[in-house]
Amino acid sequence: MQYPEIMIRPMREDLVRLGFEELKTADAVDDAVKNTSGTLMIVVNSICGCAAGKARPGVALALQNQVRPDRLATVFAGADLEATDRARGYFTGYRPSSPSIGILRDGELVYMMERYQIEGRGPEEIAAEMKRAFDEHCAASTVATI
């Protein structure tokens, strides 16, 4: 079942305001992965409470880090069905979960945060882990700016 757009629009906008590009089709996901030089962070957004109270606020805090991914993108589980499936296809070795956060470098997955790593933490803890991942995996890339 697909969520009505009117229900999820505010949840989409939480990430769009931070500079995330919405990927609504499988082709858009493929294009983002294939045409991003450096690092691409894909957030699988969700309607659930752990996305609202933990993942999205944690990502917002993490993006205050000096080192960040070169490109920010998002798909919405339960709405962008084909795009979400395609994004998860790039998260090799991980089961589908939402919310989740993957970082790819030149099309290869280098970092993954799954739902179980989000739901037991607060936004500050998620941000700290994301900043660590940015420093480790994005440092050699161009620093993104909003």
- What is the correct CATH architecture? 3-Layer(aba) Sandwich
First-residue to last-residue Cα separation: 34 Å
Sheet with the most strands, sense and barrel status: 5 strands, mixed
- Residue windows where pLDDT falls under 50 for at least 5 positions: 141-146
Q: What is the total domain count? A: 1
Strand order in space, largest sheet:
1-3-2-4-5
Q: Structural class of the secondary structure composition?
A: alpha/beta
* Number of helical regions: 6
Query: What average pLDDT do the residues reach?
Result: 93
Helix content: 40-55%
Radius of gyration: 14 Å
- CATH top level is Alpha Beta
- Tell the overall outline: globular
Write a concise keyword list for the protein shown above:
single chain, Glutaredoxin, 146 residues, disordered C terminus
Structural description of this entry:
This protein has six helices and five strands, in the order αβαβαβαββαα. The longest helix is centred in the last third of the chain and has 15 residues, at 123-137. It is 45% helix and 18% strand. The chain has helices at 5-16, 26-34, 49-62, 81-90, 115-119, 123-137; strands spanning 21-22, 39-45, 71-76, 100-105, 108-113. It has a five-stranded mixed sheet with strand order 1-3-2-4-5, sandwiched between helices. Helix 2 runs parallel beside helix 4 and helix 3 packs across helix 6. It starts with a helix and ends in a 9-residue tail after the last helix. The protein is of the alpha/beta class. Strand 4 (100-105) and strand 5 (108-113) form a beta hairpin. The protein has one domain (5-133): Glutaredoxin, CATH 3.40.30.
